[in-house]
Amino acid sequence: MAGSHVSGHLSLSLPCFDAAPLLNSKAPQVTGVRVQLEMQMLWQQFDQLGTEMIVTKAGRRMFPTFQVRISGMDPMSEYVLLMDFIPVDDKRYRYAFHSSSWLVAGRADTAAPSRMHFHPDSPARGAQWMKQTVSFDSLKLTNNLLDDNGHMILNSMHRYQPRFHVVYVDPAPNSHLNAHRNFSSFSFPETRFMAVTAYQNHRITQLKIASNPFAKGFRASDAQEWPGTSRPLPVLCPSDNRRGRLSSKEQDWTTRQTDRGCDVEQSRLFPHGLDSPELTAHRKEEENFTASFLPLPLYWDCPGLSHERPPQP
């Protein structure tokens, strides 16, 4: 792969910018970049139910995994790809089981340290990024405010929006002066989620087990209904193209596991629980590298979003 490796994660504090001038002054290497979310229909299924993502002290991978396809890059230019997570609002939530809905429980807790997750293949040429799906399967979520493993720190019972950033690696000696021109940011509303330490909505548990190809052993072999529900959610099992539902025994087992903080299907999705040694080995190199493309904005409606902007009056 072209270019030196920059991998792992980084904690950053990034300033904001006015969006209007940024939209008109982007570098040509990023103005044509387009990003398509992979597994969009699956993300939409989860979004309709209210997506939940497990956070643990040790760090937990996301399911569905954030994956995208990229087009419009300069094939010979180098790019860094990274992600961050921003709060959707300033609220803290609780789950009401009697109504199967999320309710506002008060103001948000103190914001966790702002961090960014670098794709471990960064930097690489545009031709490399565009030839295959880009997957952030090494990204982990934690609720440990003292985490020193570089995981993304989130507050449980808060809603978050993942953001994806494409950064052009400008080889010019004074590239830091044009840092605001060298990136484009993308977000997909269907990827919003609630951070939880255990799944609250049993239908989310059911859909995760049914849609995760590594959780086949937990799928239903009978047609028993979910206790307390008149009609369980039918879900498509991609691996065998059938519709299934959890049995009462499987539900009881899953509930016990989630009560213990065990994310059943995600533990099978990625059998390698530890981060790659390269993630730690290159952390210092990454910290030195960031000055070449900083800063990125923190405001919600950042330039380069995947959806079309309405025309300005």
Account of the 3D structure:
- With 313 residues, the chain is α+β, with helices and mostly antiparallel strands.
- The protein folds into two domains: 8-198 and 273-292, Sandwich (Immunoglobulin-like), CATH 2.60.40.820; 200-227 and 234-260, no CATH class.
- It has nine helices and 18 strands.
- A hairpin with a 4-residue loop joins strand 17 (235-237) and strand 18 (242-244).
- Residues 1-23 and 221-313 have low confidence and may be disordered.
Summarize the structure.
With 313 residues, this protein is of the alpha+beta class. It contains 9 helices and 18 strands.
What's the architecture of the largest domain in CATH terms?
Sandwich
Note the overall shape: globular
Radius of gyration: 20 Å
Helical coverage, percent range = 10-25%
- The end-to-end span amounts to 45 Å
CATH level 1 class label of the largest domain = Mainly Beta
Please name the fourth-level CATH homologous superfamily of the largest domain: Transcription factor, T-box
Q: Supply the number of structural domains.
A: 2
Main sheet attributes: strand count, strand direction, barrel closure: 8 strands, mixed
- Kindly name the structural category: alpha+beta
Number of strands: 18
